[in-house]
């Protein structure tokens, strides 16, 4: 049991570690592709890779389960990324980074309402406040907070949508299907619901630009690593740890981003940023801490 729980934490950390570095690849690709083009291509690559890894059709036991897959694809793939990217066009990236990090708070609310889970211990909320202070220090180190109502509101919507996706994945995990099949099905609906937006927002890809080594490498990283691998490991972590415990790992995305910016982009690590990293990690530990008598049910099925 303990080893299985440890595996769940490792899966969540690996996911967040990779997601925390995707900004570099996205930044490179934005020179040749629009946000919607990057999203569609990366998830299409991920969908194909998941078929190659596990080429088995998913046969649903009950037709109503299809609605959960549709909702998960719409929320976690289409709406979350669209709202996040649109928010970035109206407000600062640092604002979006802080606001998206409140997703665990909404996950707790949804878990209590829809999964009928017990209310979290006071340590969760103390950890949440400490982590948010840390994330604020990381995101606004050397700069001032600038409110942009529309963009900030869209970022809040994105955080709520991601919380909803986490709850849906927890429900999907209870159906007993293979984790790759579950992830692949959500990718399918995510891509399907994304199609209308490719027509509205425009989709004009220059293949000669894409096949350039630097662009191809970053697309494959986003498609294989950040999409195919990370959504499987995230969904697996939710299956093992639950939606709330997994969601708090979102706190360390700004930490990973700050550290990789220092080593890869050679950005300066300030004392404020360092303090923010420490507070964020303390908040994460407090939020993850549980009472000794608390039991975690492992629901993983082959």
TrEMBL record:
Membrane-spanning parts: 7-26, 32-54, 66-83, 95-115, 122-141, 153-174, 186-203, 215-236, 248-265, 271-287
Pfam families attached to this UniProt entry: EamA (PF00892)
Compartments (UniProt record): Cell membrane
Domain EamA: 7-139, 150-286
Topological type in the membrane: Multi-pass membrane protein
Acyltransferase keyword on record: no
GO CC, one annotated term: plasma membrane
Key words of the record: Cell membrane, Membrane, Transmembrane, Transmembrane helix
Main localisation: membrane
Similarity remark: Belongs to the EamA transporter family.
Protein name as it appears in the record: Integral membrane protein domain-containing protein
């Amino acid at each position: 049991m303990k080893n299985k729980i440890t595996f769940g934490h490792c899966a969540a950390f690996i996911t967040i570690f990779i997601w925390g570095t995707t900004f570099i690849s996205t930044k490179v690709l934005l020179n040749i592709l629009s946000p919607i083009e990057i999203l569609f291509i990366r998830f299409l690559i991920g969908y194909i890779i998941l078929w190659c890894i596990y080429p088995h059709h998913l046969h649903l036991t009950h037709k109503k389960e299809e609605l959960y897959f549709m909702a998960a694809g719409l929320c976690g793939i289409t709406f979350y990324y669209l709202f996040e990217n649109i928010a970035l066009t109206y407000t600062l990236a640092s604002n979006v980074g802080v606001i998206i990090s409140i997703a665990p708070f909404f996950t707790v609310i949804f878990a209590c309402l829809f999964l009928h889970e017990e209310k979290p211990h006071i340590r969760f909320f103390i950890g949440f406040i400490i982590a948010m202070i840390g994330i604020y220090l990381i995101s606004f180190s050397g700069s001032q907070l600038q409110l942009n109502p529309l963009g900030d509101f869209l970022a809040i919507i994105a955080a709520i949508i991601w919380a909803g996706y986490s709850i849906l994945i927890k429900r999907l995990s209870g159906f007993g299907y293979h984790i790759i099949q579950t992830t692949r099905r959500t990718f399918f609906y995510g891509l399907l619901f994304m199609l209308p937006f490719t027509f509205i927002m425009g989709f004009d890809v220059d293949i000669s630009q894409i096949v350039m080594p630097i662009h191809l490498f970053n697309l494959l990283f986003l498609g294989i690593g950040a999409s195919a691998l990370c959504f499987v490991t995230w969904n697996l972590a939710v299956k093992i740890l639950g939606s709330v415990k997994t969601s708090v790992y979102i706190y360390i995305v700004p930490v990973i981003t700050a550290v990789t910016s220092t080593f890869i982009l050679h950005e300066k690590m300030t004392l404020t940023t360092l303090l923010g990293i420490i507070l964020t990690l303390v908040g994460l530990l407090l939020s993850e801490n549980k009472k000794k008598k608390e039991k975690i049910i492992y629901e993983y099925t082959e």
